[in-house]
Amino acid sequence: MNSFFKIFLAVFLALVVFSILSFVFFVGIAGSAMSGSGPVVAEKTVLQLDLSTRFEEHSSQNFEKILSNKSLSEPPSFYDLIRLIKKAKNDKNISGIFIKAGNNSNGFANSDEIRSALKEFKSSGKFIMAYADIMSQNAYAVANVSNKIYVSPKGVFEWYGMSVNYLFLKGALDKLEIKPQIFYAGKFKSATEPLRVDKMTDANKLQTTVWLNDIYNELLLKTADERKIDTASLKALANAGKVQTPEDAVKYKLIDGVKYDDEVKDEIKKQLKIDSNTKINFLSISDYATANKGFDESGDEIAVIYASGDIVDGEGKEDEIGSEKYIDLIRKARFDNDVKAIVLRVNSGGGSALASENILQEMKLAKKVKPVMVSFGDVAASGGYYISVAADSIFASRNSITGSIGVFGLVPDMSTFFKNKLGVTFDGVKTGPLADAGSVSHPMTEPEKKIIQSSIERIYADFKERVATGRKKDTAYIETIAQGRVWTGLQAKEIGLVDAFGGLETTIAAAAKKAKLTNYKLIEYPKPASFIEKLFGIDNMNMTETKIKNDLGIEYYNIYKQLNRVKQISDGPQARLPFEFTFN
After folding, report:
1. Does the annotation count 136 as an active-site position?
2. E strand or H helix at 40, and its extent?
3. Rounded average pLDDT over 369-394
4. Alpha-carbon distance 522 to 340, whole Å?
């Protein structure tokens, strides 16, 4: 007993010491932030936008970033970024925007929204300048809107075209003697391809070729418009590998010049008409957000609900769309009389078919009492599309990935793996031939397979019916565009899966118009976990994921994610995007 109390007191003392040190640490951060006057938006300020920052759909304090940055400020959410760029357009103290265009961590649809906001900013007559030592093609897709684009003389400018690489795990499963037992509806439903084949099927190759070329053509069209070069010439430059150096990029008019960092800064000073010895007042987008708390909104409320991540049954984690949590959020907005309209922002490749159905039911109920609009981000496919079809209107970017109306299921047979690799065998008794149906400890019998396939086909029929009802189309027509096929937003509008092109801002404006609102303010959900909750361990999962990624490297981390996904998709029928891929 004495030993127990000694251990208890030691652990208790350690927790007290940790709490005190944590408190002192964060008070120190807060004190240092408050000791000065904070970010200053002085005259001739240049807003700095680093595209390598990933602007998440919904703001949430990341404990790990706070520790590493020793700062309480974080990048603004994606929509806050759009609003901040718009605010900067009319801010007399903001003279221009400087884009750090080395890499772009944002998806194609969100990047397109950022680019549109920058284009609107440029219409004010203020300058935009982009620079990088190594400018990636994805960063250039945004930066090409700039007045001037520069790359370091000894740097790199990418202009090679686009490619998609899929990761196939069949060989690994064969070596492990794990036999995936797969069920699907829709010839394009290729989510299970990595587990059953070692290369792309013809159907998957067809759909991937189509949507990839749609995204590539958007890049060519927008570059052609800004740089005054025809798309055929741009494509020929990439195919022939003509752009080997930054000087080549200048020669072919893709960028405006090669300059070192100090030379770019000197040009900005000339734009600002300040002395060469005067320091430029650069202000990061994070600091600009700190200096602009709130967006002067008033009036009736529009609820914006961010649905990002995998769709799962139950409550779900912070980065998942848990059916219980999102039903509660939509219901709360439905019953709140101050909320006059609801906007669901979807960025999800789907997940549990049952969770998707349950969320859709709540969306239907909400639509009966107030306007409901849906905005698609980078991905709103399969389950992500399923939960959206009851909306009054659906808005998407031309580059959004959507559709994938199909269902699949997976039950792995692990018996050989357990026996040959681990020396584990199974035995037992049962009351009937189907009592242990779906167990991973034995190969499935034909009656078991028929039960699961029937369930998959039933859910697929329900999915098509939900789409047909929501989109006011005939079910037979939906079958022609379903079968798990993936579409870009551009194609989705043509075939009737979305109503209009536009980002989140356009969707919110449409919701306000339908609700007959002239003044409105946004109420955003879900509310992020409090800083104290993050501090005391709730953010451990993010820190663990980051450590795994750093230890394995991005390529092996993707393999790890795929193997982990095998377990996740074995939990029940899935309405999920049919691929995990890397984009070049």
Report:
1. no
2. none
3. 97
4. 11
